[in-house]
Amino acid sequence: FVGGSIAQRGGHNALEPAAAGVPSIMGPSRYNNPTICEVLEESGSLKLASNSQELARQVSAWLDNKSDCRQAGESGAAVVQANQGATLKTLRTIELLK
To answer: Across 7-98, where does the E strand assignment appear?
Structure first.
């Protein structure tokens, strides 16, 4: 579960569990990183829960189906891997401007 997403705090970094290959669940407060959350949700690695019952239901689903849990984690890791390299690309662009 990604903290800061039940209370109106905007949610912590959803990329951290994804980078570790761990599926995650967030509450409705995701304004700190909405695009990242959307991409992870589309990949199947991030599930949304509006309340404790939905949170418990998703945790139970992943515990009951290890294959789905593993696939969700792998999907998140793939999203992170596909989007790596921004720092290197930025540095290369700066070098070209010199």
So the answer is: 24-26, 46-48
- Reported as a single tens digit per residue, the pLDDT across 11-64 is 889 999 999 999 999 999 998 889 999 999 999 999 999 999 999 999 999 999
Cα→Cα distances 46→15, 19, 83, Å = 10, 12, 16
- The position carrying tokens 């959307």 is 38
Q: Determine the pLDDT at residue 1.
A: 93
pTM value? 0.84
> How far, in Å, CA of 69 to CA of 43, rounded?
13
27, 5 contact by CB (below 8 A)? yes
Terminal Cα-to-Cα distance of the chain (whole angstroms): 44
**CA–CA dist 10, 29 (Å, integer):** 5
Helix (H, G, I), strand (E, B) or coil at 62: helix
12/43 Cα distance (integer angstroms): 19
